[in-house]
């Protein structure tokens, strides 16, 4: 049985100090974010996300490594 290759495009947006409440797609009536809103309508929007660290540099390192902060010793 042959399987067709599935093409998948992924856009990973990582912002620093971004609260979802400041985006139109999350219900803010004042802030205008038309491009993010369009991406949210056409793709997947994560309503419950996890941040590995409250600090930005260790959090980015853990996400890029695919490991927990304590496993890669970034504090």
Question: Could you walk me through the main structural features you see in this protein, from its secondary elements to its overall organization?
Answer:
This protein has 75 residues and is mainly α. 31% of the residues lie in helices and 0% in strands. The protein contains three helices and no strands. The protein has helices at residues 34-42, 56-65, 69-72. The longest helix has 10 residues, at 56-65. The mean pLDDT is 86.
Reading the helices and strands in chain order gives HHH
Radius of gyration: 16 Å
The number of E-state strands comes to 0
Give the rounded overall mean pLDDT.
86
Q: Name the poorly predicted regions.
A: none
Number of helical regions: 3
Shape: flat
Q: Strand fraction band?
A: under 5%
Largest pleated sheet: none
N-end to C-end Cα span: 49 Å
Indicate the percent of residues in helices: 25-40%
The chain-level structural class is mainly alpha
Q: Summary?
A:
The mean pLDDT is 86. The protein has helices at 34-42, 56-65, 69-72. It contains 3 helices and no strands.
What is this structure's SSE topology?
Layout: H1 34-42, H2 56-65, H3 69-72
Structure keywords:
75 residues; mainly alpha; 3 helices; flat; single chain
């Amino acid at each position: 049985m042959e399987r067709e290759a599935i093409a998948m495009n992924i856009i990973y947006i990582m912002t620093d100090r971004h609260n979802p409440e400041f985006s139109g797609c999350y219900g803010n009536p004042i802030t205008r974010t038309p491009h993010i809103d369009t991406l949210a309508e056409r793709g997947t929007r994560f309503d419950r996300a996890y941040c590995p660290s409250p600090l930005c540099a260790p959090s980015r390192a853990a996400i890029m490594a695919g490991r927990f902060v304590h496993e890669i010793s970034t504090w």
